[in-house]
Each structure stands twice: as C-alpha cells, then as structure tokens.
Amino acid sequence: MAGDDLHAFWSHCRKRVDDLLEHFLPSAQQEPASLHAAMRYSSIGAGKRYRAALVYATGDSLGAVESAMDRAACAVELIHAFSLVHDDLPAMDDDDLRRGKASCHVAFDEPTAILAGDALQTLAFDVLCGASDTQVSPTQALKMIESLASASGSLGLAGGQAIDLSLVAKDADRSLLERMHHLKTGALIRASVDLGALSANADSNMRECLARFSAPMGLAFQIVDDILDGTADTQTLGKPAGADREKDKPTFLSVLGEGPSKAYAEELTQQALDALDDAGLDARLLRSLALFTLQRSH
Questions:
Q1: By residue range, what is the domain housing residue 148?
Q2: Distance between CA 258 and CA 252 in Å, rounded?
Q3: In the prediction, which pLDDT does 239 show?
Q4: Is the pTM of this model over 0.85?
Q5: Are the C-beta atoms of residues 10 and 49 closer than 8 Å to each other?
Q6: Collapsing DSSP states into helix, strand and coil, what is residue 197?
Q7: N or C: which end of the chain has fewer CB within 10 A?
Q8: What is the model's pLDDT at position 232?
Q9: CB 219 within 8 A of CB 178
Q10: Would you give per-residue pLDDT tens digits along the chain (298 residues)?
Q11: C-alpha 160, offset from chain centre
Q12: Rounded distance between C-alpha atoms, residue 267 and residue 184, angstroms
C-alpha cells in the first residue's frame, strides 16, 4: 500500500477516535470539573493513535464495518492514555513532558493525575461494554473486555511497568528486556490487533494467526522507541529525549547497541510480515503499519 493511502487512512482514524472520545468523555464543565478536564487533556487530540489504527486495520482486513470497531479503538486509546498518565508520575518515571505538552501531573497536580488515570482505565471498559449495541455479538464483546483486561493488568502493561521500576542498567540483558516489553508495550499492541479481529467476529484460529503478527510487532515498536530515545531530540519525540539513559534505565540501545538493535527490529518486522502472509488476508494496511513501526522517526 502506498504511503499516501496509509496517511489518509490514519488521518481518518485519528479524527474518528477524537470525535468519539469527545462523546464518551464527560464534559470539562461537569463536576468534578478538574478531573474531567484532566481526563480530556490526556486523551483527546494527542498521540499518533497507533493502537487505534491497528484495531481499524485489522478489522478492515477481515471485512468488519467501521462502526463495529469504534468502541474497541477508543478503549485501547483510553487504556494507553491511562498508562501514560501514570507512567509520568513522580513515583514512576517522573517525566514532565508528554506528547509535546506538559504531563498531566504538571498541567494539573499529582492527585488529579492519579485519579484521571484511574478514571480513564475504567472508562475504557465502560465503552467496551456497549460494543454489543453495534454489529459485535455479546459473546465477542465479552471476549473484547477479557482481552483488554488481560493486556492491562499484572500480566500485561502493569506487570511490565513493575519490572521496569525494579531495573537499573547493570541488571538487564536482552532476554529480560524482551520479557519486560512483551508486557509493558507489547500487550496492548497485541490486544489492539485482537480487538480488531473480534470486531469482525474472527474465530480462534484467525486470532492466533494475527497474534503471530502482533507479538513481534510489539517488540519491534519498543526497540525502535529505545533507539529514538537515545538518538532523536526532545522536540521530535514530544517527550524528554535521553530520559532512560539519565535514569540509568536499560534499553535495547544500551544493551545491544544501535546497529544490532536496528537489525533485531528489522528481523522482528519481517517475522510479523511473514505471519500476515500465512494468515491469507488482504492485509495491506497492516503491512504498511508494520513498516511504519520500523521506519518511524517519533
């Protein structure tokens, strides 16, 4: 698929998700106003919507109608927003910049940021509970909730963050980094693809085929993120460059070096593309997203 086609598709996804989140999120004028303002600040009009794009691209490859994917796309973005709000807190990564603007706890305050993250997480599941009102069967909607819950908890991104907090550079090797990021970053990327499949009422065999695509994709995404953290500038990234190095946090860049890290990301991307070939889908959008993952600059 041509880059222009991916650009048009992705722009459409971003606008659609932002419009839907405007509807799903409480108004900033509704009490408690400061909490609702913080939730909206952290989730609307921000970010690449990469995970939502994976939902839509997966469902599209399986013939799902767009409206059947809307709630899943919003839910994964709400979970992602919650995770970023909490990751930036002083007790976690202590970052003051996110998505090119002040982190939630800086723009508001730390207690409000904690509550905003909590509320964004619960809203994600509230949104998914309405999925069966569209073309998604109640059974598939329940599977969506199960998939996203698993990706969000101690066996997913929360567990990965716990491992991350316990590490310093001298403790890590490649296998430990892979295990950590399989949870912290990869779980939600895998869930995004799975929710797209469930939006199309995909069976277990197809979900397993797509998991073989999303698993290496999630790790490749994090490897590229680590490379960019050590080589790009803050303005390009929209978050503090070099933050991991300053905090003595291990990354693929620090453990493997830039050249081997790039080679490993390329290897994983090829694994993902091969898995798409095996799935037998019209997966042009997913292929384009896989290549973007490898080639992105922020």
A1: 3-295
A2: 8
A3: 61
A4: yes
A5: yes
A6: helix
A7: C
A8: 67
A9: yes
A10: 334 488 999 999 999 999 999 999 999 999 999 999 999 999 998 789 999 999 999 999 999 999 999 999 999 999 999 999 999 999 998 888 888 899 999 999 999 999 999 999 999 999 999 887 778 889 999 999 999 999 999 999 999 999 988 887 667 788 999 999 999 999 999 999 999 999 999 999 999 999 999 999 999 999 999 999 878 666 666 666 666 677 778 889 988 999 999 999 999 999 999 999 988 888 999 999 999 999 886 6
A11: 13
A12: 21
Q: Which long-range contacts (CB under 8 A, 24 or more apart) does 176-183 make?
A: 176/250, 177/250, 177/251, 177/252, 177/255, 178/219, 181/218, 181/219, 181/222, 182/215, 182/218, 182/219, 183/155, 183/156, 183/157, 183/159
pLDDT given at position 208: 96
Q: How many domains does the chain have?
A: 1
Long-range contacts of 95-103 (CB under 8 A, 24+ apart): 95/239, 95/240, 95/243, 96/240, 97/234, 97/238, 97/239, 97/240, 98/238, 98/239, 99/46, 99/47, 99/238, 99/239, 100/238, 100/239, 101/46
Strand partners, 172: none
Q: What gap in Å lies between CA 285 and CA 51, rounded to an integer?
A: 13
Q: Cβ contacts of residue 127 below 8 Å, gap of 6+?
A: 24, 71, 74, 75, 78
What CATH number is given to the structural domain containing 93? 1.10.600.10
Please state, in angstroms and as integers, the Cα–Cα distance from residue 163 to each residue in 96, 173, 180, 273, following that order: 22, 13, 6, 29
Contact status, residue 156 vs residue 181, Cβ threshold 8 Å: no
Would you list the DSSP string of 46-77?
-S--HHHHHHHHHHHHTT--HHHHHHHHHHHH
Return d(Cα 68, Cα 24) in angstroms, integer. 16
Tokens representing 176?
A: 């430990």
| Torsion angle in degrees (nearest 10) through CA of 66, 69, 74, 77 | -110
Tokens of 193: 């693809």
For residue 246, give both structure tokens.
Answer: 């300053």
